[in-house]
Description:
The chain is an alpha/beta fold. The protein is built from 37 helices and 34 strands.
Amino acid sequence: MATKYVYSFSGGKGEGNGKMKAELGGKGANLAEMCNIGLPVPAGFTIGTEVCNYYYANDRKYPPELKAQVEAALKEVEKVMGGEFGSKTNPLLFSCRSGARESMPGMMDTVLNIGMNDETVISLAKKSGDERFAWDSYRRFIQMYGDVVMGLKPQTKTDPDHFEELLEHKREKAGVKFDNELTAEQLKELVAEYKAVIKKHTGSEFPTDPMEQVWGCIGAVFSSWMNDRAIVYRRMYNIPHEWGTAVNVQAMVFGNLGDGCATGVGLTRDCAVGTPGFCGDYLINAQGEDVVAGIRTPLRIEETLGKDMPKAHAELDEIGKKLEKHFKEVQDVEFTIQEGRVWMLQTRNAKRTGFAAVRIAVDLVNEGLITEKEALQKRRIPADDLNQLLQPIFDTEAKKKATKENRAIAKGINAGPGAATGQIVFHASDAEALYNKDNNVQLILVRKETSPEDLRGMKVAKGILTAFGGASSHAALVSRQMGKVCIVGCGSLVVDYDKGTISSGGTTLKEGDWISIDGFTGEVFSGKVETKPSEIVQVLVQKTMKPEESETYTRYAQLMGWVDKYRKLKVRANAEQDEAHLADAFGCEGVGLCRTEHMFFSKIQEFREMIVSETKEQREKALAKLLPFQRADFTTLFKALGSRPVTIRLLDPPLHEFLSEHHLHDDDGLADRLSKAVGISKETVERRVEELKETNPMLGFRGCRLGIVFAEITAMQARAIFEAAADLKKQGVDVHPEVMVPLVGFKTELDHQTKIIRDTAEKVFAEKGVKVDYQVGTMIEIPRAALTAGEIAKTAEFFSFGTNDLTQTTLGMSRDDYGSFIPLYRENDVIGDDPFQKIDQTGVGRLMEIACKDGRATREKLKLGICGEHGGEPSSVMFCHKLGLDYVSCSPFRIPIAKLAAAQQALES
Ligand code: PEP
Ligand code: MG
């Protein structure tokens, strides 16, 4: 039997169906499917993608069987539609459209009105009773055919557009503004001029034989698969060249046969916010491309179609419902209304925003169209899109306007999603002072990079913008933890603290000027751009809105209910005492990382006294001052979490982050204050600062190295933890602290710290007369720790992967400096994703796998988690599920995202 290349869809039956996207392309498969479910589809046929591959493999020739199959299919269409291709009395016209497996909007070619010539134009005029329409259809066909098949389409901006020039000239001569105001006579002249232009520029006559025309169009559509645009698009979206395109040849229906006709593109429900009901654009008395071309402003289906064409509108509404019921998805459709009759030309799953994705998925479940599990599918709600529901966002129109006004001045790494608009402030202290004067002040903290001291400024600012740093730089992770909008590594931004200015791309702004940052895209705009607050945050965090008042929240809550039902991974938060309420509001199941150094930001003087101390006595004196602060902070944190586990990490960062020559330089009295408090000379303070300076602080004196060299620091922190825990236990709170040692590479390091922790615990329990259930474990953030995990697990009761450092140490790329080359790496396909945002599964992931396996071989019940920034990134969360981790820990605002990703992976596995 001959290979089947052509699949008809006519007379209420398709030879193909919706599942055959690989063979028939998306458009062809769905045309067949719509036909099969009884929707009005103009008859036609699809030439399969296989022919496209044959065409390219055989020097642009077709398989020998194709001709007969196409001719037979054409005859079938004639029969069903009751017309004749090329007939002088009852002409039938065709369209010819591309259609790949995945839609490649606008990349390939289309020709309409195939079959028009000097004879059919007359018969079409008679049949339609509209001479103007017939000649307009003819001139459109010649134009498209000339462009697409005969190669006259301008390829660059400077190439002449012969047809448009003639058309414009004709309009001018006729003194009219729009094409549809040209008379039949004028269009007739235009047809002659078009033909002449083809002859002049191609040397060939415009073909009048309908069969020659149709083959010309089929060839042109197959050829357009390999045009530059299409190739670039495929590369961008990872669409294999071997897929090929199908070609759809279909009987023409007309939206331009008078005022009873229309053409449009619609959605079965709104895809910006998700409201139900058929909606979209349409134009009366127009052909398909007029709607998208933007020459005439389209009307809104949901606003006026019901008045203009009530019957057709009701029918479309019904079709929309039927399509959704059948495809179980919101659809994006093209249609034509010919003399009151609706014809469907295309349907496909619609693209949507995160807002719409949630609302639509939940509504479809509530309407009984899909199951809870289906609602959670990754393709319906990409986990990251939940972000949009949590963050304030720019008003779409306001942002468009800002872009139009050329106010986009720079672009950096989008580190903290959301939108913020505010006045530029450079220093944390200024930000605080402004905030204290007026709590409603809107500020954007702009820094070259941030340091721990900036935290106070970050807290009161709406957003943070830095010229340096990457996605896991301090600024980025702190701002994400606080749920602040943040852009880092904005390379083109020149920040001049002395002059109080920033400049980029020829624009200079000064302190106090307004600036707007889009943390979703990394775009920076000068001036104000209006924002909208997130309702979910108002309900859960600010509690300024009742749950039942927000439709967004109601659906979000329903969705999260299903998420919790199906996920296996627990989700904890990276939080200290100040974020505990946020973590709780988003439903964390514990704290996976409390970075104790963050707790010192507000006790910086005492902390610095500890740093500059020369002797153990001096240090212990400073630590004694810090103890009550730490205890109080732990108490707040434990209380907020109740019986949920709280992982407290001992001091980790290099000390110079808190005290460097910059700090001494920026704060005149600092050295004096420290020298007095500690009882050492000012010179000693300066010398200590000099001693603390490191060439490569990320690989220097930090992590457990601090606690080993200054054991008294670990002892103080352990005491603060256990005193707080014991006191709460006495009050009836069932606390579960987990003490975590950072940057361990050797089991002996962990042993050293564990001994101090356990000894301190015993002492405190004896003093307080109560025991607390606790664990001691370690971070895995150094390759050696991962490789010797079997050994380390003899001491550690849990592992938490610190993938920020593990990425830095495995890749040998500084987490603060990689911004200078990673963007280029990605542009040039050296690496695919930013390894500091998505776990490098082959490298870092391999080490994690080894650590999990070896760790659990030693200790079967070893608890495994992750607390690096990757813990809130969907693909990394899914990877953690596959590794068999117990939990992921992430910034409070990413908890819902991590939960959804966890559920999606659980359902997929
Ligand atoms: C890590 O390294 O992944 C981690 C969580 O610790 P920090 O970011 O504080 O170094
Ligand atoms: Mg770390």
